[in-house]
Amino acid sequence: MTCVPSPCTGVCRLDPGSGLCLGCKRTMEEIADWPMLPVKGKRAIIARLAGRAISPIRH
Q: Of the candidates 14, 36, 40, which has an alpha carbon nearest to the alpha carbon of residue 25?
């Protein structure tokens, strides 16, 4: 079995507009499921992250 490191960057805040983590761009469901996912599932999430964009923060 190959280890897939978590994409967590330590910036654990959710973007209210997209619902994605500002650090790793995962959804809350993906973050919660990560420890239980098989390698194939983790790789699928990693592959989707590059295409995700978080809207700029508006003040």
A: 14
State the pTM of this model. Answer: 0.83
Q: d(Cα 3, Cα 11) in Å, to the nearest integer?
A: 22
From CA 35, how far away is CA 18, in angstroms rounded? 23
Is-contact 45 20, C-beta < 8 A?
Answer: no
What single letter denotes the amino acid at residue 58? Answer: R
- Return the structure tokens found at 37: 């996912």
Which tens digit of pLDDT belongs to each residue from 38-59? 999 999 999 999 898 776 666 5
Cα–Cα distance, 1 to 15 (Å, whole number): 33
